[in-house]
Amino acid sequence: xxxxxLTFTVAIPTYxxxxxxxxxxxxxxxxxxxxxxxxxxxxxxxPLQKEVKAQLKKLGAEVIENKKRGGQVTRIKQNISLTNSxxxxxxxxxxxxxxxxxxxxxxxFKKNPNVTMVGAxxxxxxxxxxxxxxxxxxxKVNYFTGKNWKNGDNYLLASGRCLxxxxxxxxxxxxxxxxxxxxxxxxxxxxxxxxxFLAVDTAVVYNKSPQNLKEHLKQSKKFQYSQEELxxxxxxxxxxxxxxxxxxxxRAFINEFLKNPVYTGLYVLIxxxxxxxxxxxxxxxxxxxxxxVSTKKI
Length: 298
Prior knowledge:
Blueprint: E1 8-14, H1 19-29, E2 38-44, H2 50-58, E3 62-66, H3 72-81, E4 87-91, E5 95-97, H4 101-111, E6 117-124, H5 130-147, E7 162-166, H6 167-170, H7 182-192, E8 197-207, H8 213-224, H9 226-230, H10 236-240, H11 246-259, H12 261-277
Parallel strand pairs: 1-2, 1-4, 2-3, 6-8
Antiparallel strand pairs: 4-7, 5-8, 6-7
Helix pairs in contact: 5-11, 5-12, 8-12, 11-12
């Protein structure tokens, strides 16, 4: 390993833990332009299948089997506490890393010494169904909005599918274990602890879109509830920053409508449906909720 390379750890909390997890681990192990690193898989109370565990260990992953379920934030905190490298990359069990994603994340930290948190570019895996193509429209609208709001320094581009931190900063973050939308919380907590966020377009990580309306509804309402949730933990100035410019999102929808009027129109209808049917879905929720299954089959 070259002396100027940053040491890093990749950590994956998992509850579902199917064979998709092995594909995720392989995509990480096959990263180009990086030295040796530590890969941690922390199991959240739901035992891995023997074959999955065997394949992970064959890849060199450290499998930490927690017998009691603690939830996503509990496992994130555990992974941070176990990390001694300069950088920790937190990801999930249903993504695929581009072979240059990690190298580009590390390069962002090296080029910008004040950066403490990096968000990867999350792209959908190639759409195979009509429903996936509709959902892709929403992903594009979200990205356009995030990229053009406050020069990309906002919670929309901080996806928990892949977030990287300077480990010294990560260890300063205080994360309540009952938080549902940990992605946004981590973004604002990093900011509250005088950290600097950077979204890196060249650090691409792929995630499969929800395959049905039920799972899309669940994901959508999780984020819609987020502002209400964060108000319990954040001061007023940070909560105020949660509201993005509506005109910017309208512009994003118009851009997509001109390219794909059918998919965009259907996505608008689905969005209206999620706001009606999903009202208060997470109000009073605990740290545990049913895991999406369709997105895990990568």
